[in-house]
Each structure stands twice: as structure tokens, then as C-alpha cells.
Specification:
Shape: elongated
Radius of gyration: 26 Å
Structural class: mainly alpha
CATH class of the largest domain: Mainly Alpha
Number of strands: 2
Strand order of the largest sheet: 1-2
CATH topology of the largest domain: Helicase, Ruva Protein, domain 3
């Protein structure tokens, strides 16, 4: 190969690399410009929003810190999988924050959902 051919190949490779670099920069800018709530909405699934909202109500400073940390890790691409409510709950537990969630036990009887309290009251009178 002559020097002219090598120079042409180098120029072509350089142009391809510059184009790829430009595309990556544009992609990073798009990630930064997105609304934080929309970004979290893509990754939080199941009861994760319920856990996050309960944490915000009970521990606002800790929840804000965890939320900003999650956003940063998502934007950097270090978190790629979905975050379930259970995962988020255990993250708070590992941090020493006990998030209390509203829970209830329902029983399906004869096609009707009854709370555990209703079921016990029915048995007491029977």
C-alpha cells in the first residue's frame, strides 16, 4: 500500500470515530435534559412508587438523597434494569431507614373481598 492509500484509510477511520463521538455526546445531552420524574418512571415498576412516596412522607431528606442517587446512576448508565418496590424497600432497609407501608389482608369469600377484620367480626357473631 502506498502512503496515499494509508492516509485515505486513516482519514476515513478518523471521520467515523468523530461521527461516533458526536453521536455519543448528543445521547448524553439528551439523557441530561430529560425530566427526572420521567426517568424514574421508566425504571420504577410495581409498588416502587408507593415505597418512594411513603419514604418521602416519612423521611424526606433520606428519600430525596436516594432519589437523586438513583437518578445519577441511571443517567450514567450504571443501573440498566427495572427497580421493583421490593428492591427499593430493601435499599431503604439496608440504609437503616424503616419505611412503613400501609398494608391490608383481604379474603375472597363467595366472590366478595372482605378485610380480615370483617371476617373475624362475622365469625364472632355466628
Amino acid at each position: 500500500m502506498s502512503n496515499n492509500e494509508l492516509a485515505a484509510i486513516r482519514r476515513k477511520k478518523l471521520m467515523e470515530m468523530m461521527k461516533l463521538l458526536k453521536e455519543r455526546k448528543e445521547e448524553k445531552e439528551k439523557r441530561r435534559e430529560r425530566d427526572p420524574k420521567k426517568v424514574l418512571d421508566e425504571f420504577l415498576v410495581g409498588r416502587a412508587w408507593e415505597v418512594l412516596n411513603a419514604a418521602r412522607a416519612q423521611y424526606p431528606q433520606v428519600a430525596k438523597y436516594v432519589e437523586s442517587l438513583l437518578l445519577r446512576l441511571i443517567m450514567e448508565g450504571r443501573i440498566k434494569s427495572k427497580i421493583s418496590g421490593e428492591d427499593l424497600y430493601w435499599l431503604f432497609r439496608r440504609l437503616g431507614v424503616r419505611v412503613r407501608l400501609k398494608t391490608s389482608i383481604k379474603i375472597l369469600e363467595h366472590g366478595k373481598l372482605k378485610s380480615l377484620g370483617e371476617k373475624i367480626r362475622e365469625q364472632d357473631f355466628s
